[in-house]
């Protein structure tokens, strides 16, 4: 699968904010415009556009959370027109590999809405282990640096 992750820049940010999840997923994820704004206040975070060939199909944001100094994958969004093709799984594998290559990585964390079965299934397939419910109500899961992403 030829997916490439590229930095969100002044040249592609408007295309990025046009990407949308399915209607039934909108309750589970912040918009890309919110995520890009949020990233400006999280200096250790990366925002990447997901490309299939030369077409932008998704967005991902990750970095070191200032509260616990762990790497967190804050967002993964594949545009509704491009779901069901394995792009989410492939994107996550690439993001996990990028994070694991960093010298300061210990664990990789994710959190998702308890009703988001798609996210739960994806993270489980990738080897994330559920830790329980976070104080803010989402399910937290961890992938240790030494664990292999499936």
Automatic annotation (TrEMBL):
Domain of life of the source: Bacteria
Domain N-acetyltransferase intervals: 3-148
InterPro entries: Acyl_CoA_acyltransferase, GNAT_dom, MshD_Acetyltransferase
GO MF term (any one): acyltransferase activity, transferring groups other than amino-acyl groups
SUPFAM superfamilies named among the record's database cross-references: Acyl-CoA N-acyltransferases (Nat)
Protein name: N-acetyltransferase domain-containing protein
Organism of origin: Brevibacillus borstelensis AK1
């Amino acid at each position: 699968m030829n997916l490439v992750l590229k930095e969100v820049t002044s040249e592609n940010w408007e295309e990025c904010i046009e990407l949308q999840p399915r209607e039934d997923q909108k309750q589970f994820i912040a918009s890309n415009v919110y995520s890009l704004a949020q990233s400006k206040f999280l200096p250790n975070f990366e925002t990447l556009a997901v490309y299939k060939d030369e077409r932008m199909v998704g967005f991902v944001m990750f970095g070191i959370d200032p509260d616990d100094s762990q790497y967190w994958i804050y967002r993964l969004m594949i545009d509704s027109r491009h779901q069901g093709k394995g792009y989410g799984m492939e994107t996550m594998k690439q993001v996990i590999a990028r994070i694991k290559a960093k010298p300061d990585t210990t664990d990789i964390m994710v959190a998702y809405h308890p009703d988001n079965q798609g996210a739960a299934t994806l993270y489980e397939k990738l080897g994330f282990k559920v830790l329980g419910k976070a104080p803010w109500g989402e399910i937290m899961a961890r992938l240790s640096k030494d664990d292999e992403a499936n």
